[in-house]
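Why do we care about 3D structure at all? Because function follows from shape, and shape follows, mostly, from sequence. That is the central idea of this module. The next example makes it concrete: a single protein chain, its amino acid sequence, and then its structure expressed as tokens.
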Amino acid sequence: MIGKDETKLVIITGMSGAGKTVAVQSFEDLGYYCVDNLPPALLPKFLELMKDATNNINKVALVMDLRGREFFDSLFDALDHLTDSSWLEEHILFLDAQDKVLVSRYKETRRQHPLAPEGLPLEGIQQERRILSELRGRAQHFIDTTTLKPKALREKIVQKYGEEEQQIFSIHTLSFGFKYGMPIDADLVFDVRFLPNPHYVEHLQPLTGLTKDVVDYVFKWTETQKFIEKLLDLLAFMLPQYKKEGKSQLVIAIGCTGGQHRSVALAEHIAKHFSNQYITHVAHRDIDKRKGH
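And the structure:
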């Protein structure tokens, strides 16, 4: 466990529409405990919670913006507490963008600016910029998102705040049975019901794809060998592209009829194959749903 003298706190603030939502999602992917729109007046209490040796909160990202403007005057008092916290590594990340870009983003989302609920977005943006000017000067890190797409902003945050060689892209292989319905959280779904079925082999029927006998049966067929070779080749090409695009996890679902034999064996094989390159997880949704179990 990381000691409290190594606790990291990042305060994410800046102009409305500059990318704070993307930023906090990026910190979540980096393993930070994140709180959106924390009132500044509660920061001292939150620091006490972080300092408590009985918890394991050691990386925290807090979003503070003008949605909590009634508490905003207390922010600088709260920040003064940080200077006295020797156990805390603290950074203020300020996100900004040009006025015309912020106006365009508000128009795209059809949102009202929090400081100009009945006026023009530009009026609220200009007022917000004046209020935040002092905080902007106090920030340790500044990112101008004027020309940045969400993917590029994530990359900047990972580059700055990610731990050395930290992997934030993970693969989740999920086996399932089509007779129980499609998984709703899958990114890629592969149907392996065309492969020879161990269910019709008497001594294999009560077993699962986690046993050697079933695995040997599934993989002894030419169809299986050709399929897994082509599938692994396809995934080897696709996975770096998903990672490059900024996706933090990919759920690969493998389905057979009951989710007991073929899909289980193949899901395990895929996860093992890529375990040296990526963080991998395996789950078998329907492995215990067979009749009589």
